[in-house]
Amino acid sequence: MESILERLHRGDVIVGDGAIGTELMKRGLRQGDPPESYNLLKPEALEQVAALYLASGAEIMTTNTFGASPLRLRQFCLEKDTEAINRLAVEAVRRAVSRKAYISGSVGPSALLLRPRGDGEPAEISASFERQIRALVSAGVDMICVETMTDTAEAVLAVRAARVVTPKIPVMATMTFRKSRQGFLTMTGDSVRGAAEALLGAGADIVGSNCGNGMEDMVSIAREFRAYTRTPIAIQGNAGLPVVVESVLVYPETPEFMAAKTEELLEIGVQIIGGCCGTGPEHIRALRRTVDARR
Ligand SMILES: [Zn+2]
Question: How far does the centroid of ligand 1 lie from the alpha carbon of residue 126, in Å?
């Protein structure tokens, strides 16, 4: 199987998967329980979700390890299971996709706010990322995905941790931005350009954005990334911003709308396109059709 970076460097576009948590809830995960607990309790559910996205045309499968850094697992007294939780997630996806898709090891925020905003010590947070990433890499992921980061400094620690574990593995780093009067900014006030420069400086191979915005704003964010870098860009948008309908959260953007916005992302040269909160197999199927039609 050609490596993901080889494919990107020859200009190919790769379709990512959609939300995992909502699919696990359909398979019994209760609101409030850590999704990563399923890696220990019900790995067959992870396998089913990966199979579903593979059938929808996704070629990058994210592991259910967003919250599987030891610092974050500590909140649920699962820190001691860090290695098992990460390994079981990778193994479940591998059973479902074999070598037909890349496995992307998800690494989310640590749950501590870095100093001076909180009391998170950089050394402690780095060590936590390193332990998780080491477990993911030993289990055989094809890439590391540092995602949904709102503090650029923390994302930089995660990218560097991946580089400490192995200099070779492809590292994708995607930030979550908020629209403000000063343009799109991270929670800590970094612009798209500032974030891109910091992530690339830390050694990321792919940069971009996931979560926090619907596809319309993601197109603007992608354009900003493209203005600053020729590095491959990844965009995994939400199906809009959730609205409450009869006390249920609903994400309003349809697969057709995402497909239309995918056209624009392709125009800009975005090379990894997938979904985040509120997206499901139908959204990924629509993205897949758009990408294939363009080939
Ligand atoms: Zn999301």
Answer: 23
- Going from the Cα of 212 to the center of ligand 1, the distance in angstroms, rounded, reads 6
**How many CA atoms, within 13 angstroms, populate the side-chain half-sphere of residue 32?**
0
Report how far ligand 1's centroid is from the alpha carbon of 85 (Å): 21
List, for the chain, all residue ranges whose pLDDT scores fall below the cut of 70. Answer: none
The overall longest dimension of the chain from CA atoms, in Å, is 49
pTM of the complete model: 0.97
* pLDDT at residue 31 in the model: 87
20-231 classified as CATH 3.20.20.330: yes
Q: Where are the domains of the chain?
A: 20-231
Give me ligand 1 centre to Cα 238, in Å.
6
